[in-house]
Predict the structure of IS30 family transposase.
Amino acid sequence: MSYTQLTQDERYHIQHHYRRQTITQIAQTPDRQCKQKKRSPYKMTGQLIGHINTLVCQKLSPQQICGYLEKHHQTKLYHSTVYRYLHQNRNNGRTLWQHLRICSKPYRKKYGGKTWVKGKVPDRVGIEHRPETVNKRMRIGDWEADTIIGKDQKSALLTLVERVTCYTIICKLKNFKAEDNE
C-alpha cells in the first residue's frame, strides 16, 4: 500500500467528524484506525496463576508457558508478564523463581580466557638476558624452546627450534610436569 496525502476536502471532513478529539486522533485516517489492533491489558486470574505455577514447576520457560497457554487455553500472554509475576513472587518471599532453568546462573557470559594459574618456571632466564652471540645467529646449536598450551589448559605442545637452520621439533606433552616429559 502506497502513501497518499489527504485532500483539503478530506481534511475538513475529518476535522468536522472528530472535532471533540485531540489533534493526534484527528490526524489518523479511518483506514489506519481500522488496521490498528487494540489490546486491553490481561488480568491475572487465580486460574491463570495456577496454570503458570504448575508449568513453572515443570521447568518450562516463560516463552514456553505463553505458547502452552495460547495453544491449550486460548489465552494470549506475553513472556514479560510471566517474568514480572515471578519477580513479584520472589519479592514476596516465595520460591517459585527457583524452578526456572537459569535461576542460579549468571545472566552475562564472562568473556576472556582463564589466566595461567600454574606457578612460574623456577630459575628461568628471560629472553632479554640471552648472550649476544646467540642473538646474532652465527653458530649452529643454539636451540629455542617454547610450550603451546591447548584449550582449557588440557594439552600442550613442546616446540624446539634451532636458531640458525630453523630445524623444528614438535612433540606433544603427556602432562605439565618436567619429570614426565624428558
The longest strand covers residues 143-149. The chain has a mean pLDDT of 79. The first helix runs from residue 8 to 17. The chain has three domains: 1-36, 46-99, 127-181.
